[in-house]
Design a protein that fits this description.
Pfam families: Aldo_ket_red (PF00248). This protein is of the alpha/beta class. It contains 11 helices and 14 strands. Helix 1 crosses helix 2, helix 5 runs parallel beside helix 6 and helix 7 crosses helix 8.
Amino acid sequence: MNRYLGAHGPAVSSLGLGLAALGRPGYITLGHGSDFGRDRSVGAMERQAHEVLDAAYSGGLRYFDAARSYGRAEAFLASWLAARGLRPGDVTVGSKWGYTYTADWQVQAEHHEVKDHTLPTFQRQLAESRALLGPYLSLYQIHSATFESGVLEDTAVLSALARLREDGVVVGLSLSGASQADVLRRALEVRVDGAPLFGCVQATWNLLERSAGPALSEAHAAGWGVIIKEAVANGRLTSRDSSPELSPLRELARERGVTPDAIALAAVLAQPWVSVVLSGASTVEQLHDNLASRAVSWSAELDARLGEMQEAPRTYWAKRSSLPWN
């Protein structure tokens, strides 16, 4: 571990592993269904999750990110930690509350998760996370905080989060949607008993959607940890997307002898305000491709070559919303 999750947070590796695609049989990553084959039973998926976690740990990854709504992600992570005999100080674990998984282990469902940012949900899900992850839980985040949910104005929830912070857990929030920057700047102002509440933010920033960058830099300057999710845009910035507008990325990847996802991850790793970038790998092969990002030397020239791929935030998030569960 060579970085820290903010000015007062635990140590993290520059790359971490997010378990959104590993903890449930259906997800919106392009080609997710082909990553698991026909057997997507709980046992089969737990074995594959453990294989990817093993490869990640062997590759130097020490930050692992889950959520209550990621199916059995917390349980898979907990069983892996126990099986490998890892101690809390060996890794840093973060999770999230605010969505409840409702797909009943089905790939297709009317609702895969239900959002609720009220105090009873926080209390229930914190107890569930602690029952599984216990002393490993270093970071607990509001899952996809928005203005609409009212969570940043809910004094009961904010007070409960402050008590969690007093227990030594870093309190953070994750963001999603075209208003990420606005929500983050509001969160930077949140105080409980005169003290800043949050110490970490997890947000989307990638070669297609860079709009949150300035606000994330502000959070970093304020001493927050900054975790970047969806660095490969749910598979759009991988070899699985053959869209003509992404040809500059594929060309650059060929020149460098790596896969497109390695270039996409390298672009995020190069940002000076980033604490950790999440790999969302579902297979060991994908994880190894992702690891190659650490050997890519980023430059202003590379950034300029890929700059035209950027999309307007609302365009990007509309495309993300249209991705099928598979």
